Structures are given as C-alpha cells and as structure tokens.
Hints:
- This protein is of the alpha/beta class.
- The protein folds into 2 domains: 2-121, NAD(P)-binding Rossmann-like Domain (Rossmann fold, 3-Layer(aba) Sandwich), CATH 3.40.50; 125-272, Dihydrodipicolinate Reductase, domain 2, CATH 3.30.360.
- It contains 9 helices and 14 strands.
- It has helices spanning 11-22, 52-55, 74-81, 100-105, 107-111, 125-136, 167-181, 275-284, 296-310, and strands at 2-7, 27-33, 47-50, 62-67, 85-91, 115-118, 139-148, 186-194, 204-211, 215-223, 228-235, 240-244, 254-261, 264-272.
- An 8-stranded mixed sheet has the order 8-9-10-7-11-12-13-14, with helices on one face.
- Helix 7 packs across helix 9.
- The model has no long low-confidence stretch (mean pLDDT 90).
Amino acid sequence: MVNVLLVGNGVHANKRILPSLKNLEVVNSISILDRNVEMEKQITDSIKILPYEEMSKSESFYDLGIVATPPYNHFQSYELIINKCQTVLIEKPLTNNLDSVWRKSIKKNLEGNKLIEALMYFHHPLWEKITKIVESENIVEINTKFSVPHLSEDSYRYSASKGGGSLFDQGIYPISFAQQLIKRNYKIRSIETYSEEGFEVDLSGKISLDIDNKINFTGSWGLGCEYNNFVNLKDSDGSIYEIDFVYSKPDLTNNKILITKDGSKKEIEIGIHDQFQNMYLDAVNKNFSAFGYSNFDNLNLRYTLLEEVSKTIKP
Length: 315
C-alpha cells in the first residue's frame, strides 16, 4: 500500500488525477498540498489537507508525489517535496525554463528515477501499438496534431509572465511524439509559430522534421483552434493508419486504429484504458522502464526541440 502526496487541487487534479488515484487499490492514503482555503469543500473526508506552510516542517514521507500546479510553480513545488517523496511525477511540462544549466542541475534526480516528467499517453497500450507499426511497417510519413478551443480568459496559458502559450501546453505532445521516434539523426526542415492581435503568447505552431533520413514528420498544435487529437501514418506502400485521441482521451474512449490498404479498410480495436491509472501504477510498482521517455537524454532532447521552436516565437 502506498501513500500519495498531490500538489495542486485545480480542475485537472479533480477531473483526472484524483478519480484515477481513488480507484487504485494500492493507494493507502492521499494528501493534498494546496493554498486554496476553499479546498475542503471540494474533496472528501478521506483525503488529508496539508497547508503549504506546514510542509517544510512535516516529517511524513510519501511513496509518490504528483505535482499538478501550473508550470510556473513547478520548480518551487519540486524543491518543496523532492526530499519527502520516493518518486515525484511532475505533470508536463516539467518546466518552462529552457536553460540547459537547469536541466543539468536536476540530472541526478532524473537518472535516479527520483524525478519524472509525466506524459500520460505513453502509458496507454495505444502508444505501444503505434511504435510497433512505425518499427515494422516501413513508415515514411507521420502527421500529428493536438489543438483545443480557447480556455477561460483568466487561464495562466494566456499570460507570458506565467509561462503561458500553446507550445508548452499543446505543442509538447507532438514534439514528445517526434522525440521518442528519433534514434540517431534528425533534421529540422521548418518551424512556424503564430499568435494573434490582443494576445501576448503563442497560439499555434508547426514543426517539420526529417527523422533518421527516413520519416517525414509534421507536428502541429494550437490553442483557440478546432479540436484535433490525432496521428496519421503512411507507409512506403501507400497504406494509411488513422488514429484519434492519441494524447488526451475522454472517459471511456475505445481507441481504434483505422487502416486503409489497397482500397480496403480494417479496424484494430485497442480498448478502453485509463492512462492516468496506468502511469501511477507504473510509478508505485517501480516500473521505471515505462518512464524511459523521461530519462535525462530523452528529456534533454525534448527540451532542445522545444527551445528551437521557442526561438521563433515573437515577444
């Protein structure tokens, strides 16, 4: 049985994280660290409330810490709980600080599986199926997009001073997808980022890559756009693999892969899975191989790509 510490009690924590944790039989207790004085009205009696000011004095130790605060608070939360948890998962992005010196400063904790950038879609069986298709079907073209409509006006995502923008919120998904496919060589063909009058952050973008001199990769993202959440693959014979709900998955999503080959269509059913539960189980069961995407080398490459894109964002 494990004890979990959750930092943050916002919409995402209540909609995705807490329900998944409560349904795990291995979870003994859940404690929430949050500054929201109204939080007691939002949670059940079975969850312990911890005021921020008491955390530094606490002698409690947790099997798993989950940081679900806005990214501009991630480093502060990391410093507050890193020595009080066996493993700390930080919801993507780990940081919106692209300084390579910062990345090196946390290398020890990354390599020791003490600190992990959490990208939940890698823990869904759909990801394993996609990678097998890419490896075995001679895929030559990948097109993926993750975009969402506008959020509430007071969201930190619209504040430049709070590290907002679409790149770190939506863009990290197609970029992490590309990064996990890169084995040796890649070449950036083009990068585009866009905003609109009246906004101080980037609202959309696109990156085109040549991966291993074999795969033509195009990844797009956006905030304030039509909802998109797909990956399309094309192999050297012209067969098409269409996959929806790759990154975020609504409740009870029965993921499928639609294959069009020689004019005929076939569906591969993946089934209904809770990728958050899978991720937390991997963490508490110390299945750290499932978090290979967050080791130092992979994380460093992911943020190198994010840094290249961020250079095109006009202040």
